[in-house]
Design a protein that fits this description.
Aminopeptidase; alpha+beta; two-stranded antiparallel ribbon; 16 helices; about 425 residues
Length: about 425
């Protein structure tokens, strides 16, 4: 993409406002205790002072008269204290690229312009601040050569603290005709959705979300906000790939809330077609990428990422916009071969995805071919690994799943030939285990 960076002028103010708001909204989702929802995010006087003052610059990149990337920078002086060496730096106050234009090199182009400008001033230090929740931004800045200089830390003791939220949720009675600030409540529960306190996370936050969504306490605007927040990198995909870390609670319980919302849209539509498709796609991406497969975590309660992810997937399969049978079967198969030994009913929850696919119209021949494929993959693993511990755990997951599937199909009075095939496969693997 052949784009160039230009210095913004006062007349660019209105063009910059939409993208500035997009960046602000990202921060509202990431830290709702610090940022508030507003349509007016770019102060005119602040913008005017920046573009007209030699100590600041606003750089923009445009596409068809639309600002698709921008940064706001200012010269900064160290405080005049006897204990501090006097120095100048350039500080990046804002930096953003339109979501539709990310991955095209615009951020790199913009950053390089800031570096060049800083050098022109004879200043050798470029600084910025970034929130911990914004892992994408941190990764980008690190790729441009930036390093952490200091850390700003916090302990939350105010209204948004876990203990205070727990107390408020315990006292909440939605059946009483009492005015509730649902915007505030949603943001506070989102902020604590990954709490390691199982009472707060499971019994209070998730249960309250369930009641708010299922009993129509939330407006379409509020449900859209909640869904888009949960789909963000800082929730459903928060530190995805980590193993045996508390971040799994944020991901796992975000998937449960998404399951509630996509199911609500099935019954009472409120999502755009594009957002519904994104939600469905994210359910499969999450199960593919999740590596922390723990069920119950001592002292912290249920992580249950695969079971919760399966619940999310089931809700998506039932949605009228779902059209991904083969992809879904591939995801389920991948779950069976993850680095895990399932012992907390994960297989039972995954089975409901198969049942939902059958209800959706998947023919039994497709399911039978898929079972053959799973069995063949297990055989390939046996040929490669022998009867190793690694193979044994995969075999345990697969055979337990097959057993559960057999009885579920029998209960539903369907798949007679599939059940016979399952029996044959189980007999084969039982002999190998002798």
């Amino acid at each position: 993409m052949n784009k160039s960076v230009k210095i913004a002028r006062l007349e660019d103010y209105d063009k910059l406002k939409p993208l500035h708001k997009e960046v602000h909204d990202l921060h509202v989702k990431g830290r709702p205790d610090k940022y508030k929802t507003t349509d007016d995010t770019l102060d005119y006087e602040y913008f005017k002072e920046t573009v007209e003052n030699d100590n600041g610059r606003v750089f923009i990149i445009e596409e068809n008269q639309k600002v698709v990337a921008f940064t706001i920078i200012r010269k900064s002086q160290s405080p005049r204290l006897n204990t501090v060496i006097q120095s100048e730096s350039v500080f990046i106050e804002d930096f953003g690229v339109d979501e539709a234009f990310r991955g095209m090199g615009l951020g790199k182009l913009l950053f390089e312009e800031v570096v060049a400008f800083t050098k022109e001033l004879g200043i050798m230090t470029l600084e910025l601040g970034v929130w911990e929740f914004n892992q994408n931004a941190i990764g980008f800045y690190e790729s441009m050569g930036m390093q952490a200089q200091s850390r700003k830390m916090e302990i939350r003791l105010g209204r948004g603290s876990e203990n205070v939220l727990k107390s408020e949720l315990k006292q909440l009675d939605l059946q009483k005709n009492i005015k509730v600030d649902f915007d505030w409540l949603i943001k506070q529960m989102l902020e604590n959705i990954g709490s390691t306190d199982p009472e707060l996370r499971d019994k209070l936050i998730y249960t309250t979300f369930y009641q708010l969504i299922s009993e129509d306490f939330l407006s379409s605007r509020q449900m859209n906000f909640l869904l888009e927040a949960c789909l963000e990198e800082s929730y459903l995909f928060y530190k995805i790939g980590q193993i045996k870390e508390d971040s799994v609670f944020t991901r796992s319980f975000s998937s449960l809330v998404l399951a509630l919302l996509i199911d609500k849209d099935r019954v009472k539509p409120f999502l755009t077609e594009e957002l519904a498709q994104k939600t469905i796609e994210s359910s499969m991406q999450y199960l593919e990428k999740e590596l922390d497969t723990r069920g119950y975590v001592e002292g912290k309660g249920w992580a249950h990422s695969i079971a919760h992810g399966a619940d999310y997937l089931v809700a998506c399969i039932k949605h009228p916009a779902f059209q991904f049978t083969e992809r879904c079967l591939s995801v389920i198969k991948e779950c069976l071969f993850k680095e895990a030994l399932y012992c907390d009913d994960e297989d039972g929850r995954i089975i409901f995805a198969i049942e939902a696919l059958l209800d959706k119209g998947m023919d039994e021949e497709s399911l039978e071919r898929w079972i053959f494929g799973v069995s063949n993959t297990l055989k390939d693993l046996y040929d490669k690994e022998g009867y190793s511990l690694y193979f044994y755990r995969k075999k345990t997951n697969v055979t337990n799943f097959m057993k559960t599937l057999y009885f579920r199909l029998e209960f539903l009075h369907v798949g007679k030939e599939i059940r016979q095939h399952i029996v044959e496969e189980l007999e084969k693997w039982h002999k190998i285990g002798l």
